Each structure stands twice: as structure tokens, then as C-alpha cells.
Amino acid sequence: MKNRSNDVALSEVIGFVLLLAVIIAALSLYTVYVVPINGRGEEIDQMNYVEEQFTDYKLTLDALWTSRLINTNSPSPVLNVTPVISSATMILGNGGNSQQGTLSFPLFKPVASSAKISINTSADTFDIDSSNYHASHDTIGEFPLNITALDYSSDNYYWIQQQYSYQLGGVFLSQDEGTINRISPLISITNADNKSIVVHVVPVQVRGNGSYTSNTLVRIDTRQKILPNYNISSATYRNNQWVNLSITTSNNATAAMWLNLFKSLVASEKIRSSDYIISSEWNPGSKRTTVFIKIEPSNPGSHASLYVQRAEFDVVFNTVASEVT
Question: pTM, whole model, 2 decimals?
Fold first, then answer.
């Protein structure tokens, strides 16, 4: 006679195995599909946060720079000689979203991303020239400048890699598709009442030799430097036949971005096309491209006024305890 109790026991085992298989399949689907989606969302939120932080940083440095100028209309502006230190904290990566320990389930949580923040001096240069500036053999300004930048470089797992950069007083974003200008540098080109053109430039430089890689908080301390040669805005440079601004770079994406940026500067102020030339030159020897805008007013008797005021900041990174906000 057949023992039916064995069938019952066998069916319970089969049922348990099937239930376990369903649970494992569900967890596998969660790990393969849901976890990357959550991680992608967290990293997108983190990069949006970084953009906001760089915007705030740019506005803070603008305030530090302008607060030191008491009389900007004078050929030699009066300076406040006690610059203030500005401190800001920034979260690098989204390391706080993953938990470690024996009671956590790391497979069901997005991998924590980190990031690197650093001060870099690139091989790219920024130059200012005019019919009177270099003709006078004046070395004030020390142009061309090797561009320095405060860079945030992501180490994302689920979202595209992005780098935010504060340089020359502007905020730039580099990613797979190229480089774009988020906030324009401190360059303005405007029409004057006498049909002349006024060019204002503040070539901001950030100095420091540190870098910090983490997925926690870092404090950024910034102090403005007191420069002996603060401007080149004397009367000698206000009546130019032409003014030329140029960027030289080995990066094609950067060259294309600056070409578009120069075009947007003259378009926003409705500068006549006969008053400027925007172009680029490729140097096969150095394998670098120079992108330039040459302002040369075409009206008889008109001129190009050049106002340049330099600003430099010392930047230091300091660690911050993760539980301190």
C-alpha cells in the first residue's frame, strides 16, 4: 500500500523550493533594475546639488571681489586691505546613502559614489591684447595667464561622469557631450553712447595646490589676495583702435564652448557685426587652438575702451566630521 504521508512531505518541500525561487527571482529583479534606477536618481540629485554649490561659490567670490573696491571709477581704485575669508562646505559624492555593517544589505542599495575636488592649473591660457596695452610694453596684468580652476570631478556608478569647474569667474560643465558654459565668466562687451565699445574683464584666478577625494563633507576656505597691480584701466588703455581677447587650448570641446561664448556676448548686447571678428586658429605645431574675439569699432572716431581688474583667491580644503552639518 502506498504511503501518502511521503507525498505530503514531498509537496511541502517542492512548495518551499518554488517559494524560495520566486523570492530569489524578485530580489534579483530588484537588484538588477530597481537599485540602478535609485542610484541614478541619487547621483542626478547630487550633481544638481553640486551645480547649486558652484553657483553659490561664484556669487560669493563676486561679492568678495566687489566688496574690496570702494571707488571703481578711479584709475586707481581705493582698496579695502583686509579681505575676508569665506568658508563653505560641500558634500563629495553620495556616500551617505549606503550603509555598512553586518545588519545591512548592500546588494539592495546603490553603491556609494565619491568625488574629487581640486585646484588645477591647466595648459590653457587666457590673453588680453589691445592697440595700446602691449604697445606700451607694460607688464601689468602678466598676460597671457595660465588658467587656474576649482574642479569637482564625479566618480558616478549609475549616471554620466561630470566635471564642474570654476574658472575666470565663470562656471563650466564638462561631460560626454562636451563642455558648456553654465554661468558666464566676468567678461562684458557693451555699446557706448558715442558708438564706441567698452570691454570689461575680471580674469579671476584661484590658487592652491591641494585636492581631496572622498564621499563625505569638505570645507572650502577662500581668501582674496591683495594684488600690487590691481588693474590696467588707466587712460592709456581707454582709447584703443582694437581689443583682442583669446583662449588657447588643446581641447576641442573647450575651444568650441569659448567660440559659442564669445558669440553670445556680442549677441546679447547687439554689437554690430562690423565691429568685431570671432574666429579660431589651429596651430599644427603645438596642436592647440586659439579662439579669439577682436573688437574693432568701425565708426569713424570711435574706439574700444579696455577695463581689466584682476582678482586672485587662495583656496584651502579641510576635512569636516561627517556628523557635523
Answer: 0.82
